[in-house]
Amino acid sequence: MEKCPQCDQDRIPGEAFCDSCGHKYTTPSDPQAQPDPQAQPDPQAQPDPQSESLEEYEKDYVARVIPDDAETDSTSEPETGDDGGDNTKGGYIDLPVWHTGLNGRKFFEDNPITFGRSDTAGFFEHAEDNTKVSRKQFTMFKESDDYYIEDGVTSVQDKPSGNHTTVNGKDITGKGKVELNDGDTIGIATVLDVTFRMS
Hints:
Blueprint: H1 49-65, E1 91-95, E2 104-107, E3 113-115, H2 117-120, E4 138-143, E5 146-150, E6 165-167, E7 170-171, E8 178-180, E9 185-188, E10 192-198
Antiparallel strand pairs: 1-2, 1-10, 3-4, 4-5, 5-8, 6-7, 6-9, 9-10
C-alpha cells in the first residue's frame, strides 16, 4: 500500500490528501486498479515524461521533508529537534516543552497542510487533554513570504475544529484565513498554546 511521504501513514485509496497530516499526493489513487503480479514490463515502452516529473517531484519532496541520517539523529523526527538545531528555514509552529522534555516544530509549506491531534500527542501533562484537540484542528500554509492559519473548511480540512482555535486570544474558527506574525500565540482547543515563529 502506498505511504504518505510526510507522515508514513497508509494512503486511503481514492484520497488526494493524507487523512493523517493533510499532505497532497502528486499522483491520483485509483482504488479500482490493482497491479497484476504476473504482468511483465514492456521493454519497448517509453517512460511517460509527465510521470517522470511527478516522480522527481516526489523524490525532491521526500528529500526536503526527511533529512539524511548523517544530518540528524535517527531516533528523532525532522520536526522535533531537541534545541531547534536543524537547518530548516521559514515559519513554524513552536510546541512548548512539558514535563516529558519534548519540544518540536511543524514548518509551514506552500501547499496547505493540517495541524491537529497527532501533532500535539505527547505535549500534554495529562494525556486526556489531547483528545480535546481535533484530528484536523487548523490549516496552515505559506503564500509568497507570508504565513497563514485557517480553522474552517479548506482544501485539506473538511470542517472547523470542535473546540476552536484562537490567535492572540481572538477566535478565528470559521472566519477565513488569518495572517500570522512572528511571536503570535495560537490557542488550541483551550488546552494548549503554541507560538508562531520565523527562522
